[in-house]
Structures are given as C-alpha cells and as structure tokens.
Amino acid sequence: MRRAFLHWPRTSAELSADAVRVLAALSVIAGAIWWTPTDAGILAFALPATLLPRFLGVRPAFDITYGVTILVAAWSNVLDLYTSIAWWDLAVHFVATGVVAAMLCVLLSRWGVVPWQPETRAMRRVPLLVVPVLALAISALWEMVEWFGHTFISDDIFVAYADTIGDMAVGGLGGVVAGIVIAFVPVGARATVSIGDR
C-alpha cells in the first residue's frame, strides 16, 4: 500500500484523481474561511477518505468517482442540499453508500479478508455478495451516528423512522448496483499491489 501511495501519477486520469484530493484539501480551507467551524469539520472529515484510493492504488476512473462522490456528499451538507432538494438525500445515499462499500471491498481484498482479486475478472460472485452487505452495514452505522448526534449533540439533526429505513434501503440498493459493477469492471490496481507492500 505504501508503494501505491507514493506512485507518481503518469497519466492525465491519475493527475485528475490527485486533483480531486487537492480540491478536498482546499475545501477544508474554504469551509474554515467562508463557512462555520462545523462545516469545516465536515469537509475535514472527508479529506482523509479521499486518500484511501491512493493507498489502494485503484484504477483512476474508480479513484475519481469515489473522490468526487465523497466531496459531493460533504458539500451537500455544507450547502444544505439535503434539506433544500427533496430527492437529494436519497440520491446521495444511493451513490455514496454503493461507492464507499465498493472501495471497502477492495480494501478487504487487499487485507486478505475476502478472496477476490479486483485487478481481474476472477471470482466475480464475491463483490455481488460482499458489497451489498457492506453497504447495509455502512447505512446502519451512519444512521446510528445521526441518532447519536440528534440525541446527544443537537436536535437540529433530523431523525425519523421512515427516513432511517428509507436511507438504509436506498443505501443497500446502491450496494447491489455497485457490487454488480465492480464484479464485471476491473477496478483494482494500476499494477498488482499486495499486502506485503503495506
């Protein structure tokens, strides 16, 4: 993983993926200057998440998709898009949960937890099962975080039974779609990255 992280970008796609990470860092600065400390904290929370694909050395298209999705999810909170656009919350839950679950599936494969090689088309059935399960787990964890925030931090955080179940269902569906995609589209490393590189 260390070797993948230190890999020098060689293509325009790899440069674009790194540009998304630079944009994530600039977003934290912008949040601190023009928005509130809470907003800056949300954007800062997204920054390390955008570094994960660099450590895993995934293909640039997947790297860019993941990074942009993370930034859109974070900025949607800062810009109040979740409350101002009726369908936006479900759309972001669908896309973000699926993409994050797919990236976690790659991470687990690197650690040898799941028997799958994302660089190849071998063992396609693994992500078909693992990614939806991860998506549901991520959705449940996120809803617990929202409940905790509503209960112990601020009742401005919206929590309702229908919203919780809807978010989890859509997140799980996003995981199903993401699992199908990465089962048939190689998303793994530019070059094989093994656990020994960590």
Automatic annotation (TrEMBL):
Keywords: Membrane, Transmembrane, Transmembrane helix. InterPro entries: YjdF-like. The chain crosses the membrane at residues 12-34, 40-57, 64-85, 91-114, 126-145, 165-189. This is DUF2238 domain-containing protein. It comes from Microbacterium gallinarum.
